[in-house]
Amino acid sequence: MSMLYRCPLCGLALHKQEHAYFCDNRHQFDIAKEHYVNLLPVQFKKSKDPGDNLAMVQARRQFLASGHYQFMCDALAKRIATDNPSTLLDMGCGEGFYTSQLANQIRTQVHGIDISKAAIRYAAKRYQDCHFAVASAKQSPFQDHSFDAIVSIFAPLFVEECLRLLKPDGLVYQVSPGPRHLFELKSCIYQQVNLHQAPQAPAGMHCVDEIVLEKQVVLTEQEALDLIYMTPFAWKFQPEHLAELRAQAKIVVTLSFIISALARDAA
């Protein structure tokens, strides 16, 4: 299996030698004991510890382990598998839940990157079937045209970087919130809830096809709290909102997703 990494400092290909990656300019990046590599140089960081903190990582992992999002993950894997990619990148992979699921279901070479060191450490420790790196999706440490497929699940989509990384016939699979995603939780915060708008294909790309998924689930109080704390809602929820949530006989929440397959426009 070939390594796809390039040096984030000079752009030359990285080569693995025992417990580190090196480029021909002798820049060195050590492999952590959890089997990930940090390819986010300190000068590229906007803060000391960018990305999700450990509390958010743990909340998301606990909620995803409940299986409520599994129907979306299965639909995504099934759609990607129809194109039989040999290499796949999960951009903004977080703690690696989806990354590992895709690797298991599609049986391909899967890489995951995230700017959160806490998330990547968590991922690499648990999922030995993927390659994880601390890295920026905006300046990703991979060689040009390395991937048949790029996945972006509730993460910013850096289009120019995706086009650089994609092989000529590669696709980006973007997962966005559907119209009524988490409608009930939003209703606890806002008097009037605005529905999510359907995503538009970014400049330079077009939508090949789209899958819309939606269902309602009943959550335990702890699952609802984990769901809140893994989203930006964590900053909006006040004690009175949590009290309203706890007072409900059943915590019913709508889960809604749009899976878009995006291809580069013809030259």
Automatic annotation (TrEMBL):
Record key words, sorted: Methyltransferase, Transferase
Enzyme class of the recorded protein, top EC level: transferase
Stretches assigned to the 23S rRNA (guanine(745)-N(1))-methyltransferase N-terminal domain: 5-48
GO molecular function, one term: 23S rRNA (guanine(745)-N(1))-methyltransferase activity
Methyltransferase domain: residues covered: 89-170
EC numbers, comma separated: 2.1.1.187
Domain of life: Bacteria
One Pfam family linked to the record: Zn_ribbon_RlmA
Matching NCBIfam families: PRK11088.1 (NF008300)
Protein name: 23S rRNA (Guanine(745)-N(1))-methyltransferase
Organism: Pseudoalteromonas fenneropenaei
The encoding gene: rlmA
